[in-house]
Every structure is written in structure tokens, then in C-alpha cells.
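[User] At your convenience, examine this fold.
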Amino acid sequence: MPRLWALLGRQVKKYTMGDSSSVTEETAEELFSSLCFTLGFALRAAGIPCKTLLTGNLDSLLKKGQGLLSTRVQAVKRLWEMVCRTSPRIQNDFYRDTLCGIGKSFKKYDLYFFADQYPETVDYPLINPVPESQKGILYAEEYLKRLQIENTLLNRFDEKKIIKLLESCVPDYRGMCINLCEQPMINALGRALIGQSIFPLEIGEKERLCLTGILTDGRQENHSRLLSEAARRLCSELHREDASTVSYLDHLCQDFLPRMESALSAGNLSNVFLSFLPENIISSWE
């Protein structure tokens, strides 16, 4: 620990550009947290045990970590560019603003003094949120990886059908903080459950009766398995059977399960597996 404190002292001098050897307690804590993040990143990247901090050259390790983070920032920027290119052509203010904010963050991110902090607010919700344990540029990287999975899933479906489904879910889907991918995937799961093509997306009364029959005949403890099997059929039909996509949809299944079982108990699946709204109703909103 004395070695870390000494390193912190050197960081404080760099932060104040030699004008002072002291900063506020809050700033000192932030600088120390950044140091620990950068050193830990360097250790993990090199496969070096944490005990190296007791004897190794911390200044060299810090410099190595900063270099690795700089390289990672450029990789994440390329990932962001790919996500932007593959974004679905469905308007949503929160999606757009979040991507714009991430684009601006590359200039604001301070990997030398506040490496564990992410300078932008990310408002657009994911189906599978990024854990709070992810910090700094690593948070942005993981967020973009998950968003890219959602982009890929959405882009497999007809845009007009997705919009019809979103209008059935939230009329003002353009201005609301909602996930664009969740309801389309839930409806696709429902269609996969009854062995129908996932691409029409709509679930009418006939399909809901089939779903009710399948889910009622199966024991409640089997519902999780049924959804997971449906997710795999969905992935197969989309030709997206990679582990990351399968795992992502499995997470959706487990989150969706309580909602589905609650609706099944109430004898009404119409609020979870949605039908398209009639055109005259949609026109009346415009």
C-alpha cells in the first residue's frame, strides 16, 4: 500500500501540473480509483498476478495500462462506428442521443486521471443491461457490443412490421425511453413456441390460443425450458447461433418469464404477445 500511496502522490503532482502536492479528498479518491482501475487493467491484460503490485515497477505498469487503454479507446471507436452503420432505421430519440453521446465521449474520456469514469450518460435501455462493475471505456465497449447484438436481431425483420408492433406497444415509441428490440423478440419467441415462422411478428388470437394451450399443458417449471428452446429456434431461423446471441436471448427469456406466467395466470396473454393495431386507430393518433 505505501507504494500505491507514493504513486498517487506522483499522480497528484501530474494532475496539478506541479503546482500543488495536495488536492481535495474527493479528487484524491477519484485519482486513486483511476490508478487502481488502470493498474488492474494492465495486470489482467498481461496475465500478471495482483501480488506484482507489491514488488513491481508501478510507474511502468501504469504507463503500460494507459497505453493499453488508449488502444482500447480506438477499438471501441471503431465498434461505435459499426454500430452506427448497422443501426435500424427506426426513429427513437433516446437511441439517437445515446449514440451521439458515445461518439462525443471519445474526446472527453480521460484515461490518465479518471480512467474508471465514463463521461457520458447512456439513457437508451438495453434488453440485457451492462453490469455496474464495468467501468470507464470498458463500459462503453460492453454497451456497444450488446447494442450491436440488438441491431443485428432487429435488422433481420421487416422494418414496417417492427414499427407496427412498437405502435401497438407504445404509440409514441419515437419519443419514449423504450427498448426497440424487446417486444419484437418477445413476439418472435411466441411464434417460435408454437412452431410458426418468426418473421411475421404479429400474434393474433389464434396464435394466443395455441400459446395458452402449450403453456397450460406444460408444467410451470418447464416454462423456462420451453422459452429457451424457442430462443434457440429463433436463433436458428435468423442464422444467428453464435454463443453471444443465444446467451443474450436466454437472458431475455428469464426476464420475460415472470411476466408471461403472470399473464397466463390471469388468462390473458394479449398484453405480452401483441397484435398489430388496426390502421384506423394508428391514423387517429397522427
Observations:
- The chain is about 65% helix and 0% strand.
- The mean pLDDT is 91.
- The radius of gyration is 24 Å.
